[in-house]
Amino acid sequence: MHSARELAVAANSLAELEAALETFEGCPLKATAMNLVFADGNPEARVMMIGEAPGAEEDRQGLPFVGVSGRLLDRMLACIGLDRSSVYITNMLFWRPPGNRTPTAAEIASCLPFTERHIELAAPDYLVLVGGMSAKNLLARSEGILRLRGQWRPYQHSGLPRPIPALPTLHPAYLLRQPQQKRLAWRDLLSLHRALATGWDPLSKT
Ligand code: URA
């Protein structure tokens, strides 16, 4: 059996990466999931959004963010003039954890090489890290999402020619439980909008 890293690095296109995940047997979540949930939206988009893991509806349809959280995410994107033709959307995990339980560190680690390659191949201008799980794992930070959100940080990886500005933000599932926090998510969306509209380099700190 090839390792996750070997399979991921050998993929030279998004289609090859998805095909590699179809053959990958190193993530136990695959055994209980109905479908692989790879990505949705426009792979050529300037923005790539990375959530946590598929839920029941995502597992049924094989697409990320198509349940209740996804509908809120779509409304949030619409506020700054974006939709699934102008963003590319994926998750840190490609299969649903049974009963939506919290994924284990081993499950996250087994999928991480695929996400790292996914980012290299999609090569977005900006990353939006939706929720604490993607923010912590991709930025190697230990703070909670309420501390990380709203601050652009460089996402670096050996295969990238330059760091990609990454913006952690609150997960829509959290916002559905804590609607008063939507004002914080709104600030993050405005920061993303500013970057897209003006070409401002969020890593330049000006
Ligand atoms: N939550 C996520 O993080 N991703 C999904 O695809 C759905 C819900």
For the structure shown, list the relevant keywords:
206 residues; binds uracil
Mean pLDDT: 97
Helix residue percentage: 40-55%
Largest sheet: 6 strands, mixed
Strand content: 5-15%
Number of helices: 9
Unreliable spans are none
**What molecules are bound to this protein?**
uracil
Which strand order spans the largest sheet, edge to edge or round the barrel? 1-3-2-4-6-5
- The sequence of SSEs as H and E is HHEEHHEHEHHEEHH
- Evaluate the radius of gyration: 16 Å
Terminal CA distance: 48 Å
Structural class: alpha/beta
Q: Quick one: how many beta strands?
A: 6
Description:
The chain has 206 residues and is of the alpha/beta class. Helices cover 43% and strands 13% of the residues. The chain contains nine helices and six strands. The chain has helices at 4-10, 14-23, 56-61, 68-79, 105-122, 132-139, 145-148, 172-177, 182-198, and strands spanning 40-41, 47-51, 87-91, 126-130, 153-155, 164-169. The protein has a six-stranded mixed β-sheet, with helices on both faces. Helix 1 packs parallel to helix 5 (105-122). The chain is globular, with a radius of gyration of 16 Å. It starts with a helix and ends in an 8-residue tail after the last helix. The model has no long low-confidence stretch (mean pLDDT 97). Bound molecules: uracil.
